[in-house]
Structure prediction request, 141 residues.
Amino acid sequence: MSALDSRDADFGKDLDATVRARRELGEEYDSALVDSFLEKVERRIDDMVDRRVRRHLAEQRMTDARGTRRPRSADTWAERFGFALVTLVLAIPLSAISGALAGMPGLAVVWAGIVGVNAAQAVRVNPELITGRRDRSGERD
Prediction:
């Protein structure tokens, strides 16, 4: 619903009044009546555009005030390296247990889980890996 829709009743009344005035006054006042009606329409359009521009500027100011960067998480290179190291260290006993109990299928499940956990961590830290979009700010960790 646009702002003009919310005022359809007023707009309809203005148009109806203009048409009635034209019938009463005759064709010699056509241009004056049309000009008057068009001025009212133009004012309404200008008001709508002004509101939209003000709203857009306010949204832009809010975005600028918040900062356009993605909030930095606590993930640093050391933390990512530590996460990968921990998963590899845990992979040793998990591989031994799964290999002894379930054989090759168990080993495949464990390593699929390890790869999945590391992939999920990578996507959490870098969502552009999935979306294919790059961070436009040009910042790097």
User: Anything to note?
Assistant: Helices lie at 3-6, 8-25, 30-66, 77-125, 128-131. The two ends are 44 Å apart (CA to CA). Residues 46 and 52 are 10 Å apart (CA to CA). The longest helix spans residues 77-125.
